[in-house]
Amino acid sequence: MSIFGVDIASGSPHSRQSPSYSLVILEGDAAIPHHMISRHKLIRLIRERQPEIVALDNVYELADDRSDLINLLRRLPAKTKLVQVTGGERPESLVKVARWHGITFDRTKSLEEAEACARLAARGVGAVLFAFEDRTFVKVSRRRSPGRGGWSQNRYSRKIHGAVKGLAREVEKQLREAGLEFASRAVEGLGGYTRAEFIVEAARDKVHIDPGYYCDAQLKVQSIERPDLKWGPLLQRRGYIIVGLDPGTTTGIAALNLSGELVDLISSRALSSSDVIEWVAARGRPLVVATDVFPTPGAVEKVKRAFNAVLFSPGSDVPAEEKIAMAKEFGYKNDHERDSLAAAVSAF
């Protein structure tokens, strides 16, 4: 998977100074930085490399207003998702979201912010912007006007309108062969059509028709714009989970699915109870909230009550050797992650 993390480095789409961007391309384990590139070069790289995701902390770093944003989205590859990693309608700060996921960066360094955006998107964090309906508009029209008159105007008009009609028939044939549902209308002209329009009941990436110029006719293909912009989660993580929690100055949280597989694991300093609750909610619906110590810490009780989940407590402190054995198969970075894993595994 290829992911572009983008952050504005200087200027702004809203000012006279043209913006420059920092770009970090994630491909597997490699992170390839590009600093101080123009908007034009950024879009060119996106079109050339066709990443699955372009991730930012604010999509309006790429556009001046909604109209500019729509025009930008029309230029991106159909399968590339524009993701705001801070959330959709109610975004959080990038620093806060990164902290929830154990990612740190220097806010004064644009390249580090760009990489943080890319790594968050790689974990499925963020909201995808949906600006278009799952319908596509196709228009066949004249490439040039027949002109005002002359002894050969009718012959010239028939030639142009014939080309439009021929291309319209070819479009209709391709849509039928692809099994796509569509509605069409055509405007008759001397010797053919002056234009023909199709509304296809499929997203643009499902309509394999290329726009362009074809002799005396031209073909336009574009997604149909939504009345309102819509946000959707990048990754659906709403299944049931078992949460292991190790609260303290550094908090460890582990989430397992009901098959005992690791959903996510984090350790971070200075996480508040609300931060923990939001992190957990983003990963699923907890059936059980577990601890590895006795008595149960108040912070664990608070998270348990927030989800009306079942509390799991071992009844006595779990020895370190047992915790190591339970957490070993998943891998962990520190004791806090180990203890949260042990709690979740014990509850499972």
How would you explain this protein's 3D organization?
The chain is an alpha+beta fold and 348 residues long. The chain has three domains: 2-125, 2-Layer Sandwich (Nucleotidyltransferase, domain 5), CATH 3.30.420; 133-225, Alpha-Beta Plaits, CATH 3.30.70; 240-347, Nucleotidyltransferase, domain 5 (2-Layer Sandwich). It has helices at residues 39-49, 66-75, 94-100, 110-122, 153-177, 273-281, 298-307, 320-327, 335-347; strands spanning 2-10, 20-27, 30-38, 53-56, 81-84, 127-142, 182-189, 192-200, 212-214, 217-233, 240-246, 250-257, 262-269, 285-290, 310-312. Strands 1, 2, 3, 4, 5, 6, 7, 8, 9 and 10 form a ten-stranded mixed β-sheet that branches. Strands 13-12-11-14-15 form a five-stranded mixed β-sheet. A hairpin with a 4-residue loop joins strand 12 and strand 13 (262-269). Helix 8 crosses helix 9 (335-347). The longest helix has 25 residues, at 153-177. It is elongated, with a radius of gyration of 27 Å. It starts with a strand and ends with a helix. The model has no long low-confidence stretch (mean pLDDT 89).
How would you briefly describe this protein structure?
The chain has helices at 39-49, 66-75, 94-100, 110-122, 153-177, 273-281, 298-307, 320-327, 335-347, and strands spanning 2-10, 20-27, 30-38, 53-56, 81-84, 127-142, 182-189, 192-200, 212-214, 217-233, 240-246, 250-257, 262-269, 285-290, 310-312. It is α+β, with helices and mostly antiparallel strands. The protein has 3 domains: 2-125, Nucleotidyltransferase, domain 5, CATH 3.30.420; 133-225, 2-Layer Sandwich (Alpha-Beta Plaits), CATH 3.30.70; 240-347, Nucleotidyltransferase, domain 5 (2-Layer Sandwich).
